[in-house]
Amino acid sequence: MDKKDLLARISSANGTDDFFTLCKDIYLLLVEQPSEKRSETLAWFFQAAEEHYFAKKGKNPPSDDLSERLKSYACKYRQLVHGLVGAFSLGGYAENLYYGKLWDGIEALLSDATEEEKGYCYYTIACNNLTPYYNLPIGLKVSRNRFGEIIVNIQPSIRKLEFAIRLSRNQTTELTSRVLHLLEDLDDLEQKSVLLVYLLKLWGDKVIEDSKKSSDIAQTARAQSETSKTVSVNEIETFQIASSQNESEAIEAIAEFQYPSLNGDEYSFALIKSGEVVYLTDQGKTLEQLDRIFDLKEPVVIKYLVAILKQYGAIKKGDEIIFEIKNWNGNISEDENEDLKRGKLSLFSCVSFMLNMKIFYV
């Protein structure tokens, strides 16, 4: 099976059943390939799927049999796979390295999964809105103080931008062409980036204001908000009890592992030994960040956090998110310690998913 044959099958796929079979087959092909070729094959497959399968209209829905299997696999693997995609997409990796990490992650975390279940994982990656992956330049990061300084310096451009939004009404091309002229008058990338941030805020406020004009939309939003706040008493109590635990045993720091920044904050996991227990901890960074965005006592927030912890096998201990290394062999090299490697991937995916929780909370 070569790329020409695969491309023909992708192009002729009529619906979910055909494409799901392709995802199983691509996994079997990858297993047979040398490691240095897998990343290239995965990158090509997802790009071809985007151009020749997902772009089609009128695709057939899954058969009843496949639909039931997909539901079963989704309960076990969907959030985990999306967590891996979200975590590695933040790393700024070259495309081949990114797809190699996805392969390694799935193989490490799902070593006991069947071939069809792993095929489902690649099907889920293909359907993720971050696929195909592109290696974009590292984005500009501006501190809060610096952001405020730039806002003051570009006030004339901001006033013109606000006027352009009022003037353009519903003509978005008219607005964006004026914005391009405003950007040309600014001095550097920092100023241009801040003006675009301000544009997004103004446009978001405009969308919210427009939506409020529709009573039907407002009523639906209120109903959804009330429904989403339903959470069991046990989940709230478990989360709060875990927050108040305070172990007195002496702890030993074994190692520290640096990760790419998440939501603009530097992350490192500590490997800790407490008595006979060895675990990885985010050192309280995740809840510290989430507390800036959400009310961590809200039932709906607890509901999502508990669900994510369960999905990745992590635990809340005080303000820390931890992952216990069950079979600790004393080796801090993940190449020689499969349980440590699996733990690092699980905890990184877990906290990444939590930090992106706003996509389904708001």
Structural commentary:
Helices cover about 65% and strands about 10% of the residues. With about 350 residues, it is an alpha+beta fold. The protein has three domains: about 5-125, no CATH class; about 145-210; about 235-360, no CATH class. The chain has a five-stranded antiparallel sheet with strand order 1-2-3-5-4. The longest helix is centred in the N-terminal third of the chain and has 26 residues, at about 65-90. The chain is globular. The model is unreliable at about 215-220 and about 220-230 (pLDDT under 50).
Q: Using the CA coordinates, give the radius of gyration.
A: 24 Å
Give me the secondary-structure category. Answer: alpha+beta
Give the mean pLDDT.
83
Q: Reading side by side through the largest sheet, how are the strands ordered?
A: 1-2-3-5-4
Strand proportion: 5-15%
Poorly predicted spans: 213-218, 220-230
- Give a quick account of the main beta sheet: strands, pairing sense, barrel closure: 5 strands, antiparallel
What is the CA-CA span between the terminal residues? 45 Å
Number of strands: 5
Shape: globular
Helix content: 55-70%
Order of helices and strands: HHHHHHHHHHHHEEEHHEEHH
Can you count the helices? 16
Summed up, the domain count is: 3
